[in-house]
Structures are given as structure tokens and as C-alpha cells.
Amino acid sequence: MSAPLDLPKWADTILVPAISVVAAFLVAGLVVLGIGENPFSATRYLIQGSLGTGEGLGFTLFYMTDFIFVGLAVAVAYHAGLFNIGGEGQATLAGLGIALVLNNLTFLPGFLLIPLGILGAAAFGAAWAAVPGYLQAKRGSHIVITTIMFNWLASVLIVYLLVNVLREPQSMNPETHAFPEQSYIPFMHEVFAVFGIEIPASQLNLTLVLALAASYFVWLLIYRSRLGYAIRVVGSNPAAAVYAGISPARITIIAMVLSGALAGGLAVNELMGYQHRLLLEFTSGYGFVGIAVALMGRAHPVGIILASLLFGILYQGGAELAFEQPAITRDMVVVIGGIIILFAGALDGLFRRAVAHVLTRQKLARA
Amino acid sequence: MSPAIELIAINKSFGTVHANKDVNLRVERGTIHGIVGENGAGKSTLMSILYGFYEADSGEVHVNGKTISIRSPNDAIHAGIGMVHQHFMLVEPLSVVDNVMLGAEGGAMLRAGEAKARAELARLARDYGLEIDVDATVGDLSVGLQQRVEILKALYRGADILILDEPTAVLTPAEADALFGLLRSLKEQGKTVILITHKLREIMAITDRVSVMRRGEMVATVETANTSPPELAELMVGRRVLLRVEKAEKAPGAPLLEIDTMSVVDSRGVVRVANASFTVHAGEIVGIAGVAGNGQSELLEAIAGMRHPALGSIRLEGRAIPLSERNPHRMRQLGLLHVPEDRLRMGLVPAFPAFESAILGFSDEPHLGRGPILDHDRLIADLAKKMEQYDVRPPAPRLKSSKFSGGNQQKIVLAREIERNPKVLLVGQPTRGVDIGAIEFIHRRLISLRDAGVAILLVSVELDEIMNLSDRILTMCGGRITGERKASETNEQDLGLLMAGVTDEAA
């Protein structure tokens, strides 16, 4: 038994996550110190590499775009009380959807092809998520188990398709033919160039705008719409949903479909925005990062954008850091990311309790 | 002689809530001491401190004259304090003796401990009249006997001081009488009993002394012989309250809700309701009396369309409702509204702001928004108005639903349903966990709805409430309707027999 913890909103949404991040960086600093490196210069490289140059910033925002989509995907399911671990697989299938649409409709102009590609991504991601959703709703198969299994299925399926079906006959690489050029989502530096503004070239493309629009859409859906209301009722009080005449089974499937469609955004950014072909393992495990992003962002779009930025900094800055201080390998950077996830997610309660105590003391002292 | 328990200046806060303020309590050895107070008055917190669930922020605990620190239930048991919770902490598939031994097995192997437990149980049965089949599976026992197992558990661990939290909530009147007999014999043997209850009748019947808590403070401790229910109620609430709402005789109108041979089978295949048939007329309150768990809840949910399969027919305003329309959504549209029994689990969403809980079940109503988007400003304004009418405190529509007291939560739920002009209103446990002041308000509101011609079906485990509000009373036992009485022509003993399953034919 523990006492109920009620924090003011500002403390819950800003103070506690901030403390978590600071604590994570302190512990990560100790780890860096432990392997005999200077944590201060490491921090400098991290920040400098991710935010200090225009190019670095571009890459940071590119990663952020990925994380926003998968974070939103996890969040929507989370509001319905579902833990969607399958972002990775859903994004993989979304990539397949993109490739099928773009490489089969090469005759279409860009302004039609790009939206169709995005729709293809959403549809395939949604379909791949709908199956575990259906199994949860109608058969009671636990969504965590089924989505994990579907990640494996997706990964094996895509290997099979790329090796045996979709690969260009004359190529040895397990990847598709390049997408038609008119389907490329413009790079941000190209867009700015149109307006005569020169910014450093990077992978960053207009999908970021789509990610921000999706964030607004998810906010509107979850917190303002009737459907989002039903999703949240099911997620926080299934018995109340039954009382209210809301079908938990129906909402479970709908939430998973939306979740899968959002996860498809990762494929849009990576493939239509950057790689311009379907290849193996383009998801790079970002689907799992989405879980940490959503946890840290309190499943709220604004929090998810901020958490995505943090993880973007970590990924881009970490790459720079590994380059500048070779003793700190990419694996070390993953460790640091893991520590942040640990503090933001698992150890969240630790700081919540401490913060609640301090705030109560203050209140009593004032009273 | 030093008192069994003395609490001095106990303070406990949760976040910003000061649940116990400088509470003093003295319980004499060998007495039955009642503690009463409204919900949220701090009774449970105080007892949780005594039993080691919470630690006090400040204050002293003396047991039998010695200052001790109780940091866990183990410390409490060590000090000779036992607790019988409202919700039993039993392992149903295990036998009585296994349950009693649980946590006190006395070693890695069970045999020696079991022999000791059997001998001890035999002694307890002899000394206190606590007869029980020690090899019976706990899940098969009646609720009254399960409670006895809880008491045995406490005594087996050497409890001299027994805390009982709302012990009669799940008992029939006869079982409650048996419990009181047992408590008296414990007292005669020198044990000390602390009884937490909100039923003033029980306080008057069994306690020697009673302490009253209000808003975290101990406001009075009086000899039971020198007080009265109205005085206690006034102490609890801080103002005069009417314990009985007056209502005028009224001839019922047309039949609005007709239930014919309804049966409900739950997911485990257990028959919860068997062949229930009855009618509720316009301008009539029909109460269903019964001990908790005898099918009333399931009956209510089945009528509301929440439970399937539910056999039998429902007629609303004379029209038979086909099975395809028997879902909560459609029933609402047809004018059958429902104040559910368990407001925290069903009636509202504790994590939502109040204005969102205030549209639970109605979120599809077109006027609440534009297209797929809900109009929050409007929802907030709507609720603000209702909060004023229903005197909800604090009148803050944006406050989280869970932050309101039980009574105020119930008012929010009632306002939501009543303000949509029901033809038929199903009401489950309208005043469970609701403070006395709000009970009066809720009762008045239900009576005025009845006077306005609404057909009300009321389910409550509070016999007083049923007798007070109803025009007609049905009793349920084991899923069957065992009797029907006019409220004016019955009494507690009569209903108690029916609730225990003694039907008219058998009597």
C-alpha cells in the first residue's frame, strides 16, 4: 500500500521529466567517467554535434520526425489502454506499402503520387496493427505478445519479399528499384532554396511538417473528439465504457488501426524522404524508441515532440560523439539512451514521490 | 488500568489533504468502541495508521500503556492488534485451516504448524463459540462464515484488540446479529473491539463508547448510553440533518417498466438472476432489498442492457424491447437512465475532469459539440450550471472526478442522468460512500422525481434506505425474488426473513 500521489500539473508534466533527464545525464556522466573519458567534453560534443551546426541540427530534426510518428503511435494505443510494442513491424509493413504504391504507379505526377504513397504507408501500417487489435478485442490474445510476434513476422516477410520478389533482378542488394523521382518528398534545404534561403543540406525533409500536423491531429482526436473521448474511457475505465454503451472491442480495433497508421509515418520519413527505395531494416529499432518517447512525453503530443527532440539530439549528437571520442562507441551512446529510458520510464515513480514530498512540505510550511 | 489503545496527537497528510489532524483516541480495555464519521472524515486513515499500513507524520501510539512504533501490519500483529477488513483478505481455494495459518506457518514444513493451528482453532471454538468446519474450502462458505474466518485469523495471531471495518455491509440482518453476539462474547473474555461503521443503529446497539470524526478531526467521544442517533449525526455533519425524508402517499400511474421472467447467467455459467418478474409504475419507487451479491447488481445491469445473455422480456411504456435494442446506448435513447451501483468503476471516469465524466454515456449527443469534435466550453458551462443546482462542492467543472468526495461524485452522476428527463430511472446504491448531508439531498431528489411521475427502480443494501424511499419493496435472495411488500406494511424482521430466502410459501 502506498499513499496516493497527486502532483500539480506543472510538476507532473515538466518538473518530473526534467529531473529524470538531468538524473539520467548525471548517471551517464558517471558511466563515461568510469571508462576513463571526460564527461564534460562528451556532453559538449553531444550538444555541439546535434544543435551546434546547421547540418547537425538538420539531422537531429530528421530523427525527431521519426520519433514523433512512432511516439504518437504508441500514445494513441496507450490512451485506449493498449501497449503497442509493434511500431517496428507496422513501420516495416508501411515501407512495403510505399514501395508497392510508388513503384507500380510510376506514371502519376508527384502531387498525386506523394499523397498516395503516404496513404499506402498508413494503410499497410494500419492493417498490420489491426490484426493484433482484432485478436485482442475478439479473442483476448494479449496485445503485447501479438505485436512482438508481428514484429518478427514483418521482419521475416520483408526479407523474403526483398530477396525473392521485389529485388531488382540485376542487383545483389536486397532492396527495391529506386522510387520514381517525382515521389521524393522535398528536402528542407531544397524547399528553403526556393525561397532563396540557404541552409545546410541534410536528410531533413518536409515530412517533419507532416509529423507536426499529425501531432496536432492526435491532440484534437484524443482530447477533443468524441472518438478520442471513447478511446480514453476504454483506456482508463473499461467497466465505465460498457456502462456508457461504448464497445471496448470496437475501440480497441480502431485505436490499433490509428496507431499502426501513425507508425507508418516513420517509413514515409525514411523512405520517401531520404532513402527513396525500400531496403532492409530501415526502421533501425526506432519503433521501440517510440515507447520511450511516449512514456517520457506522458502520451501527450506536446510532450512527445519534446521527447522526440531529446532523442533526436541523443541520436545525432551520439553519432558525433562516437566519431570525436572513439573510446565512446555507438554502443555507449545506446547505453546512455537506455539510461534515459530507464529514468524517464521505469524510475519515474522515484522522483514523483520525492517531488510530492517536497511540495507538500512547502505547502504545510506556508499553511 | 492503562487503556488498550491511546493515540495522541496523530497527524497524517496525503499531498495537500490533511487526513488526520491532532487526533486523540482512547479505547479502554474490554470495551466495544465505535468510530463513526462521514466518508473522508479520516476513520480509515486512523485505523490504517494503527494497523501499520501508513505511518503517522507525527503523534504517538500507546498500546496497553506502552509507547510503540507501528511501521507495518507485522508490528501491529506483534502488539496484539488484529484487523478484519471490509473486503476479506482470504484465499478462496484454500481451506479454513490453511487460511488461518497463512503467514504464520511456523517453519518450512507445514505439518507441525497445521497441528498447532487445528488445536488452537478448537480452543477458539470452545472459548468464544466460533464454530467452523476447519477443512471446508473458504470459497464455499457463506459471507458470514468467511468473516468468521477473518476473525479467527486475527485471534490465532494473538490479537487482543480487534478492529472491524464496516463489518455488517455484506451481512444479512440475522448474520449481523450473530456477529454482534460474537463481539459481545469477545468482550466478556476481555478482548477490546473497535468497530468502524456508518450505521448509527449498530453503534447504538453494541458499542460502549463512540468517537465521532469530522474532516480529519476527532470531534467527540461519548458514552453510547448518553447519546442518540440524531445527536451523533449532528456531530458527524456539523449541522442538524434529517435522517428520514418525508414523502406523501401517491397512487402509482401507468406501468412504465415491466420485467418478465428475466434470468441472467454470468460468464462462469452461474445463474445470477432467476425468473425475475415485476413492474414499476409511473410515480413509484420500487426498492429491491437484499444482501450484497444476491443478484440485484446483475438484474440492474441486465435491464440497462449491459449484460448478456439476459433471458426474459423488458417492456418500456408498454412496448416490448427487442433483443437487438437491449444495449445501454439504445436504452438511454428510450428514456431508461441508470445511476450505476459502483460510481468509481462505472458511474464516472476517476481520471477525467468532472465535465468529461458528466457526459459519460452521452458523448454522442449532437448538441454537445460540432460534428466529431466536442465543445468543451459548452460542457464546462453545462456542468457549472448543474453543480450549482445540485450544490456540488467544490463547484469546479475542470477538477478531476476523483478529487470530489463520494457524495459530490454521486451528485455529478445523478445530475447527469436526472437532467436528461428519464422516464424510468435505475438507481443502484445511491448513497454508498456518501456523507449524511448529501444522503438527505439525494433522497429528496429521488422523491421529487417520483412525484414528477418517473418510475424508479432502487437497489440498495441499506435496508433503512429501501424502507425510507420505496413505495413497494421486493426482496432478492440467491437470484430469486423472494417476496413483495408494500413499504407501509412491512418491517425489518419481515424483510430480513425474506432476504434470507424464507419465502412466503415456506413461512
Q: Short summary of the structure?
A:
Chain A is mostly helical.
What does it look like?
The complex is a heterodimer of chains A (about 375) and B (about 500). Chain A has 15 helices and no strands. Chain A is mainly α. Chain A has a domain at about 65-310: ABC transporter involved in vitamin B12 uptake, BtuC (Orthogonal Bundle). In chain A, α3 (about 55-80) packs across α12 (about 285-295) and α13 runs antiparallel to α14 (about 330-345). Chain A is globular. Chain B is of the alpha/beta class and about 500 residues long. Chain B folds into three domains: about 1-80 and about 160-170 and about 185-240, P-loop containing nucleotide triphosphate hydrolases (Rossmann fold, 3-Layer(aba) Sandwich), CATH 3.40.50.300; about 90-160, no CATH class; about 255-345 and about 420-500, 3-Layer(aba) Sandwich (Rossmann fold), CATH 3.40.50.300. Chain B is built from 17 helices and 22 strands. A six-stranded mixed β-sheet of chain B has the order 6-7-8-3-9-10, sandwiched between helices. In chain B, a hairpin with a 2-residue loop joins β21 and β22 (about 480-485). Chain B is globular and about 65 Å long. At the A-B interface, α9, α10 and α15 of A face α10, α11 and β18 of B.
